[in-house]
Design the sequence.
């Protein structure tokens, strides 16, 4: 019996995998090929920004939804990635010159931190590795001391404020509060804000989102993913089973930070500017809210939640500019009180069965195998369905 | 016979309160030792020290002759000490099989967990254990659907999957029906053939079922007496601490 169910489960898993792959391919075709040709460029740019935010939401889901660590400081890693790419774009100027804003502060020579960003490959590496290492370091210091729960959240937020103030104060290095503009910069001799370049960034965003989604799926599906869930549910038990949770948490936090870095870079070029305000507390909390709305620990929920909240914001702020914030507040209240598992959580635990019963299909029952095997129970069920 | 666990002059104090007080204890490899004692006797602290959760204030703990002071919990677990908690602690959001699979993983560092797959050996261990603990028909169910007794058995199975030399079992019969208690007792007895076990228990009926070897009685953080179940039961000091009066 257990063998049979094992095979059935494997088959079902395989079928689900094929269905999922089909859905992803269709979505990618729609998003990357069809959408750019039917909606205006400024809308496309908007969607590209939302998709890059969905990437950071995936990272948050990894660390919060699966590992149970609520980070309120992902703005740091998001900004690090954004600044890395913005610095590279600001350096696309004739040789011997330095970006304009340096003149404001009387800086004559390019600061050393800018030097590596002349090269595109190094920039791309840096926008993944710098946030990843920053997250890994913060994570190591925090997790080694067994800080978790609320204290972890507070610490990440404190770190966020430290970075925020630091970036604001560094006028001579990164233009302080004014931030770095990317729109008028050039990349491969094309203006960054031109339609063609923006469309390319949009397509890169779609592809990155899919690849990062698949990476997260891989991370969370095997033993490693189950261990993350185990750490979330009972860390002490994990420790007494011979695992050292610290290493796992540091790695996941670093990956999550690196993902935020990629998201930040893609968001920056599709926004046109990056300033330290990206590290405001409210923005990092909003990231968490997207995941909560979509459904923790589901990955797809993170993407869905981000798109829904952000599209809703855009639509509502266009139609009801004065009161759209109330709608947003109402949405969050509804999710917290009515849908604690988010939209995807509600769908898998309740909505799907409801839909099936509305369509007249039999609800799928989960019971103890011994109960299903019990001849009396089977007889009873047969009689019930005959009535 | 070699000693698997030796404890010498162990004192653990929390802000001056001595949870364990100059405790001396030793047990042989292959023994099934039952530890009893009234509430607050220091039984759980005793396990906490052996597993590295609490550091001794004084004295030392030798496992297979090695001092375990300052070794982190996960390393002690890898050295071969498995612990079952008082309330069943299994991973509720994972299936029964995955619960066992996680623990049976032989290489528990980050990268090999990330890239490795369960080898045949581990799969076989898990399959065998599912049968031993009687949960093979529920292998693919989420552990949250198990009854209390099944969770207790699953957790004991998880201990064994760790292939430890010493099993520490904290009140395995708490909250179980008579039938389930008997099942757990039989399971422990069969495990005792290949492991050293320390079981902490309150339920005297259960203690009588499993105590073939020595029984140790703790009282106020110190060793009160030690011996066969019959001897211990008739020891006037034991009756005093349990009933609060001296027998006439």
Sequence:
């Amino acid at each position: 019996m257990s063998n049979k169910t094992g095979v059935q489960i494997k088959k079902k898993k395989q079928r689900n995998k094929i269905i999922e792959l089909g859905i992803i391919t269709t979505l990618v075709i729609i998003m990357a090929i069809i959408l750019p040709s039917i909606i205006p460029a400024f809308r496309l740019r908007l969607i590209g920004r939302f998709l890059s935010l969905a990437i950071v939401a995936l990272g948050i889901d990894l660390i919060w939804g699966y590992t149970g660590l609520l980070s309120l400081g992902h703005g740091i890693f998001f900004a690090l990635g954004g600044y890395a790419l913005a610095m590279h774009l600001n350096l696309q100027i004739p040789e011997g010159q330095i970006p304009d804003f340096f003149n404001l502060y009387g800086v004559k020579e390019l600061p050393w931190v800018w030097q590596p960003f002349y090269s595109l490959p190094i920039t791309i590496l840096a926008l993944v590795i710098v946030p990843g290492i920053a997250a890994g370091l913060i994570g190591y210091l925090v997790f080694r001391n067994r800080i978790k729960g609320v204290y972890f959240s507070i610490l990440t937020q404190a770190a966020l404020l430290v970075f925020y103030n630091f970036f604001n104060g560094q006028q001579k290095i990164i233009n302080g509060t004014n931030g770095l503009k990317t729109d008028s910069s050039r990349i491969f001799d094309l203006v960054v804000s031109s339609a063609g370049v923006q469309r390319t960034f949009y397509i890169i965003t779609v592809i990155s989102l899919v690849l990062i989604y698949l990476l997260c799926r891989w991370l969370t599906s095997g033993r490693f993913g189950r261990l993350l869930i185990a750490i979330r549910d009972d860390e002490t038990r994990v420790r007494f089973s011979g695992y050292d949770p610290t290493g796992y948490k540091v790695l996941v936090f670093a990956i999550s930070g690196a993902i935020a870095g990629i998201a930040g870079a893609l968001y920056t070029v599709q926004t046109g500017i990056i300033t330290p305000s990206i590290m405001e507390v409210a923005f990092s909390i909003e990231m968490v809210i997207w995941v909560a709305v979509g459904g923790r620990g589901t990955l797809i929920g993170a993407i869905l939640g981000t798109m829904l909240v952000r599209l809703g914001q855009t639509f509502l702020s266009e139609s009801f500019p004065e009161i759209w914030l109330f709608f947003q507040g109402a949405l969050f209240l509804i999710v917290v009180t009515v849908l604690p598992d988010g939209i995807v959580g509600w769908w898998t635990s309740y909505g799907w069965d409801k839909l099936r019963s509305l369509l007249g299909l039999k609800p799928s029952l989960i019971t103890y195998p011994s109960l299903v095997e019990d001849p009396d129970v089977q007889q009873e069920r047969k009689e019930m369905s005959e009535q | 016979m070699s000693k698997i666990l030796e404890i010498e002059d162990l004192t653990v104090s929390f802000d001056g309160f001595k949870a364990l007080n100059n405790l001396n204890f030793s047990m042989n490899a292959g023994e099934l030792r039952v530890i009893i004692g009234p509430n607050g006797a220091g039984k759980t602290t005793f396990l906490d020290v052996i597993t590295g959760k609490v550091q001794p204030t004084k004295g030392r703990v030798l496992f297979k002759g090695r001092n375990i002071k300052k070794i982190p919990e996960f390393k002690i677990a890898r050295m071969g000490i498995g612990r079952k908690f008082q309330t069943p602690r299994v991973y509720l959001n994972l299936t029964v099989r995955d619960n066992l699979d996680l623990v049976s993983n032989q290489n528990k560092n980050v990268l090999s967990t990330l890239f490795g797959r369960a080898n045949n050996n581990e799969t076989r261990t898990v399959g065998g254990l599912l049968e031993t603990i009687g949960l093979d028909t529920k292998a693919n169910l989420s552990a949250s659907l198990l009854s209390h007794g099944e969770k207790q058995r699953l957790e004991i199975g998880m201990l064994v999957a760790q292939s430890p030399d010493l099993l520490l079992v904290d009140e395995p019969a708490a909250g179980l029906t008579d039938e389930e208690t008997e099942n757990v007792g039989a399971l422990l007895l069969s495990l005792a053939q290949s492991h050293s076990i320390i079981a902490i228990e309150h339920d005297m009926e259960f203690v009588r079922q499993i105590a073939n070897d020595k029984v140790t009685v703790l009282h106020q953080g110190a060793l009160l007496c030690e011996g066969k179940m019959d001897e211990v039961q008739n020891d006037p000091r034991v009756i005093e601490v349990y009933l609060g009066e001296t027998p006439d």
Notes: The beta strands of chain A are 180-181, 186-187, 190-191, 273-274. Chain A has three domains: 1-33, 39-339, 341-387.
